[in-house]
Amino acid sequence: MLLRGKQASGLLTQQKMLCAAVKLFLKKRYEGTTTAEIACAAGMPPSSFFRAFPSKEALLLELDKRMFSGQFTLAEQHSAARALRGGDGFAAGADRVEPLRKLYVTAYTLPSTSAYLYRSTAKRLEGIFGDYLPDAEAKDFYEMEIASTGMMRSFMAVPCDVYFTVERKIARFLECALKLYNVPPERRG
User: Fold this and answer.
1) What tens digit of pLDDT does each residue of 98-109 get?
2) I need a labelling partner for 142 at 20 to 30 A (CA). Which of 98, 134, 135, 150 fits?
3) What Å distances lie between residue 110 and 28, 61, 117, 148, CA to CA?
4) Mind giving me the DSSP string for the chain?
5) Arithmetic mean of pLDDT, 72-95
6) pTM, 2 dp
7) To 10 degrees, what angle do helices 138-157 and 166-180 make?
8) Among positive and negative, which fits the CA dihedral 28, 30, 34, 38?
9) CA–CA distance, 116 with 95 (Å, rounded to integer)
């Protein structure tokens, strides 16, 4: 019974750290936030951070896993094009809040987080777009994920303005990405 209590306590600590980190990342950016600040914002001593996560990058990886898992859960509930166009995912919503946009760029820049995102997203994209690319293998979807992520990261790296609005960025990204995944024009609408 003690083991279950320790496991539950550890999960609760991680959850508190994640919630605190999100608030701090949005306020101070990823780069401007320390592990000690995260722990203190979670109501714990600074040393407790490293009992929950081995590093700040590991915390960001866990946060990415949770966010992107939710994004694809939504996508699986809708058609591929509608889910991508609908703005339900992290990438679409990130551009509406400047700090979240910057966190997205950071997630796709750090080695451990980007590697996770490429691998896991490629598997999901194969399930969504596999029918349009019947001869493609898992490695092809991995490579296409890197290509489409490069496009999205480029769009996200540029702040929105009156000419390049979030709606325009999404439309342009989808135009490019749906071509990459060989979605027929009549299915893109």
Assistant:
1) 666 677 778 888
2) 98
3) 18, 9, 10, 17
4) -HHHHHHHHHHHHHHHHHHHHHHHHHHHTTTT--HHHHHHHTTS-GGGHHHH-SSHHHHHHHHHHHHHHHHHHHHHHS-HHHHHHTT-SHHHHHTTSHHHHHHHHHHTTSHHHHHHHHHHHHHHHHHHHGGG-TT--HHHHHHHHHHHHHHHHHHHHSPP-SSS-HHHHHHHHHHHHHHHTT--HHHH-
5) 44
6) 0.63
7) 160
8) positive
9) 22
Tokens of 91: 């990438």
- Residue 117 tokens read as 């995102």
Distance CA 75, CA 82 (A): 8
